[in-house]
Amino acid sequence: MPGPDAPQDVAATFCATLIDEWVSLGVQHAVVAPGSRSTPMAVALTARTDIHTHVFHDERSAAFAALGIGLHGMPAILLCTSGTAAAHFHAAVIEAHQSSVPMLVCTADRPPELRDVGAPQTIDQIKLYGSAVRWFHDPGVAEWTTSSSWRALAAHAFTKATTSWPGPVHINLPFREPLLGNAAELPLRSAAATDAPRSMAAIDDDGVEAVAGRLRGRCGVLVAGRGCGSPDAVRQLAQRLGWPVLADARSGVRHFTDVAVAAADRLLRSDTFAEAHRPVVVVRLGELPASKVINQWLSATGAEHIAVSAHPAWFDPDAVVSMHVLADPSRLCRRLSAAVDRPYDSRWLAGWIAAETAAQQRIDEILSGPELDEPLVARAIASLLPSPANLVVSSSMPIRDVEWFGIVPAGVTVQSNRGANGIDGVLATAIGIGLATGRTTGLLIGDVAFLHDSSSLTGLVRRDVDLRIVVVDNDGGGIFNFLPQAAALDDDRFERLFGTPHGADIVALAVAHGLPARSVKTLDDLREALSEPGPRVTRVETDRRRNVTVHQRLNHE
Questions:
Q1: Of 84-98, 270-284, 445-459, 486-500, which gets the smallest average pLDDT?
Q2: In whole angstroms, what is the distance from residue 449 CA to residue 64 CA?
């Protein structure tokens, strides 16, 4: 097949081919940060009607929005121009790497003759993200003589991003001027080509029996985090074993009140309870819980630890896991349920559930309102969203409060960037999740994280996303008031280094971006605010010192 003669037409055809292959493999979204050098890819993306292209003014916002889209299993194409624009992707690439989120990162670049000669907007982009990507490739300036490999390049990138251990891949794309060209007929897809393989970690019969043999008739707990698999499969295994599930807020298991323990952090602060409920074996499904108290107790029990994950990611900071199982958690839970003969002593699970019920009742008594505080907001927010919905929770205090006190009903999916535990890009991540799912998306975020990602407010009012943002505003870094620095330093020094009050008007900032915004003081006000479609911003003013007192009462009564 004869190809185009003009180099800019070759580049246009090359980009159109990559995109065509990715769309055929299921990619539905692209996120673009504006720039000139990326023109061939940007034009090729917007030439198609079968992919949603979202433009973000800020590269960091764009990258975290792509992360949010990828949290639902299918990578987004992420595109920027050359130079430091690519560097602003780095934080989201790291989070995608550590959270096993697929992403197709495309950075435009200057051609080889313009590198290392002082050309403007040119940096070294080769392996820019180091070990944080599953694969890096720079195919060079596109030439028609290599067109037979273009679809294979796209399929290779997609496979590296989505199989075995999902994560980001980085394709560095040098383009020569002129940048505007016309795509010719695309190279044909091979008749033998099939959909990219999907990796599903499997375990054979002997492996299942090896795990089952460690569980039968023994006293244990299941620990369910993000990536624990099907909530129904986890519940079935818990019932079959007669074990409680220490359910992280992101597990999707908390609404199963017959097996789930959501108040484990509070219960295990009691030395008496913690000592009386030591398990012999712990099965961890997916990632670790957010609770430091739970993780420390698990490590100190002396129990045998079995960690199950669908990906070869290692979650064992305390070096206590004796058996790592690489398997699809849902499938393994179902097979173990069939392999276990009978549940453990029924009093074991019943004791945990009775304690859970009493703890939840006590939390309700303490958080009786009517004035809002940070734990009450975290406890109530998921229940105030319509179902089905997403709830995105910022790192720092919000995710801890939801982990400690949050009620997560059926139909609400909780997400939080816990790969690197950063507060950067939280708003953009929520936007990406909302764009990918089309569902109502709630966001619980602190004031510092909100300001940190305020560039993501740009153009939000014009996006087709029902995003209902709740900002807990304590005028600074509230989590630091819980640390030893708060007592060890004088007030002025502590506030300057850690409290970091900013004095920003959250409502005015939102209104300046064209968003409806208001402050609320009571639970009824919050319920009313969250009943209205977004995008919109609701501010809850709190006090950092009073917040410490409320937490102390919750944790010690």
A1: 486-500
A2: 13
* Distance of alpha carbon 288 from alpha carbon 279, whole angstroms: 17
List pLDDT tens digits, range 297-349.
999 999 999 999 998 878 888 889 999 999 999 999 999 999 998 889 999 99
List pLDDT tens digits, range 48-98: 999 999 999 999 999 999 999 999 999 999 999 999 999 999 999 999 999
Averaged pLDDT of the chain: 93
Domains in the chain and their CATH numbers?
A: 7-174 (3.40.50.970), 205-358 (3.40.50.1220), 367-556 (3.40.50.970)
Q: CA-to-CA distance for 181 and 302, rounded, in angstroms?
A: 65
Residue 106 pLDDT class (50, 70, 90 cuts): very high
What is the structure's pLDDT at 485? 87
- Name which of 44-48, 103-107, 419-423 the model is least confident about: 419-423
Separation between Cα atoms, residue 162 and residue 197, nearest integer Å: 9
Please tell me what DSSP assigns to residue 514.
T
% of the chain at pLDDT higher than 70: 98
In angstroms, the Cα distances linking 490 to 367, 493, 497, 516, 546 are: 31, 6, 11, 39, 18
**DSSP bridge pairs for 537:** 469, 517
* Radius of gyration, alpha carbons of the chain: 25
What DSSP state is assigned to residue 511? H
Distance CA 36, CA 180 (A): 10
d(CA 495, CA 119): 44
CB 216 within 8 A of CB 47: no
Residue 149 CB coordination number (10 Å) = 12
* Whether the predicted model's global pTM rises above the 0.90 cut: yes
Joined tokens for residue 65: 């929005």
* Residue range 201-214, pLDDT digits in tens: 678 888 899 999 99
Return the residue matching tokens 């019943």. Answer: 350
- H/E segment holding residue 446: strand 440-446
Strands ordered across the beta sheet of 29-32: 52-55, 29-32, 77-80, 103-109, 168-174, 135-137
Round to whole Å and give the CA distance between 309 and 320: 16
168 within 8 A of 105, measured Cβ to Cβ: yes
CA atoms within 13 A on the CB side of 428: 31
Residue keyed to tokens 């505080």: 373
| Pairwise CA distance, residues 103 & 88, whole Å | 15
Q: What is the mean pLDDT of residues 169-180?
A: 97
The Cα diameter of the chain in Å comes to 79
Q: How many CB atoms lie within 10 A of CB 378?
A: 26
Is cis: bond before 244, omega within 30 of 0? no
Rounded CA separation 332/348 (Å): 23
